[in-house]
Amino acid sequence: MKTPQQHVFEDVSTISRRNTRPKTSPNNLENSLSIPVDLIVEILSRLSAKSIARCRCVSKLWTSILRRPDFTELFLTRSLARPQLFFAYETNGEFFFSSSPQPQSLDVNSSPVSINHLKRLPFYGPCKILGLVQGLVGLIDRRFLKGRTRTVPVICNPSTGESLSLSTMKTRRCNVISFFGYDPIEKQYKILSMSRPRYEIQEQRYELQDQQKQQVCEEHQVLTLSTGKMSWRMIECCIPHNPREDQTGICINGGLYYQAFVGGFSKIICFDVRSEKINLIKKDKGMELWRPDFYTLVNYKGKLGALTVVSDKWLELWVLVDAGKQEWLKLIFVMPTLWKTEVAKGHLYSIGVTGTNELVLSSSCISSPFYIFYYNFEKETIRRVEMDEYGKCRVFISLDYVEDVKPIQMFRT
């Protein structure tokens, strides 16, 4: 005799597909076909995230299938094989998210690529993106709560259009700096936040930078996104430092790296998302000569890389080949003719390095049309892709965006 639980499982595991005969036909039940749930999962996993969101509205049965952990993991695994460019920009009190496929053409110049419009999120103050991890975006919004302005962390899934406001860090200070990281072993998302004394913005830029170098952050706290009760907890930090505010950090294999001032000098800090320990990454002697705003942290073949443009002739890339021993490898890449004639005039900045070993660069100034450049390290060639839709606003661009249909509301307490 089957238990009620077994009957429920069987109902979820099959979907009946009936033929088009009239309901009065006595052969209806004989001609009904049961589709195994494994086949249903296989078919639906090939749809886009937008289509998955629509399919969840078909019935409770479809909703239960499409929210199953095995389905969301299968969908994410397939999405990881086709990472995309991610775009975000502010306009008229809203944050717009969109994505674009990775161009495969090897032509130097290509036609404009297609844009996939994702989530549109309202914001209430100066909004800052904390980072893009897997399929989730972490950002900070400023809101007026309990008689004072507070920074509120928000988690957003651009694929499904879901967003969730989280609890604020418990501190009496208003100046809070946060980063968004992910532990691939425990599969946990975490937010690292730290506070520092408020300082008045000076008219001269160098005076502001000098204050940033001298200040030290305090009250380091971590919030883990989970299905249970979420609360901030204090962690220890033995490295007095002040993170740069003009960056989002980069998460590589459970290590969250960001630049910071330590004793007035630019350093690299690593927050181990799993152990929640903060460590100092020692630079090579050749890297110490760099200006703090002269290099970009990138993911180079699964390892931390520090990239800088030495001149209009070559790039210099330092790769942390051994994180334990903190050993670096220096690579030099000669730039082709196109760099000297077109790219170098565009005041470009590095976005990151793709899995196909291409450096992605974008213009730092507003222009129309808007271009993205791909530099192939191995072939030492550059190709240009037009993104004319973003020619009239300042855009945040990130690599390795993947669609994820995991319900973000699972984190709600």
UniProtKB/TrEMBL annotation:
It comes from the Eukaryota. Residues 1-29 are annotated as: Disordered. InterPro entries: F-box-assoc_dom_typ3 (IPR013187), F-box-assoc_interact_dom (IPR017451), F-box_dom (IPR001810). CDD domains: F-box_AtFBW1-like. Residues 13-29 have a biased composition (Polar residues). Residues 29-78 form the F-box domain. This is F-box domain. The lineage of its organism: Eukaryota, Viridiplantae, Streptophyta, Embryophyta, Tracheophyta.
